[in-house]
């Protein structure tokens, strides 16, 4: 997704090899290094995906959580807003 003229990439981590309670990572494009660099890690629970959207000039990221290590499938998904530094 593009925010404030910069490309970002939100990676949803469903399983990290040992746990469904795995951090997902938001990356920002670094034009000088010509690569994505980690901006922020967010705790997620069997995350399926991210969706970026903007309302009234405010940027948001929504994550679809699926379940946690306790096989709880009623886990909440979440919406985060950009505060100028992180979500």
Task: Describe the protein's architecture and organization.
The model has no long low-confidence stretch (mean pLDDT 96). The chain has a four-stranded antiparallel beta sheet with strand order 1-2-3-4, with no helix packed on it. A three-stranded antiparallel beta sheet has the order 5-6-7, with no helix packed on it. The radius of gyration is 14 Å and the shape is flat. By secondary structure, the chain is mainly beta. It has strands at 2-3, 6-11, 21-30, 35-45, 47-55, 58-65, 78-81.
Defining key terms:
single chain, mainly beta, four-stranded antiparallel sheet, 87 residues, three-stranded antiparallel sheet
Topology of helices and strands:
Elements: E1 2-3, E2 6-11, E3 21-30, E4 35-45, E5 47-55, E6 58-65, E7 78-81
Antiparallel strand pairs: 1-2, 2-3, 3-4, 5-6, 6-7
Distance between the termini: 14 Å
Q: Could you give the order of strands across the largest sheet? A: 1-2-3-4
Strand content: over 45%
Total strand count, please? Answer: 7
Helix content: under 10%
Q: Rounded to an integer, what's the Rg over CA atoms? A: 14 Å
Biggest β-sheet description: 4 strands, antiparallel
The low-pLDDT segments are none
Quickly give the structural class: mainly beta
Mean pLDDT: 96
Could you give the order of the helices and strands?
A: EEEEEEE
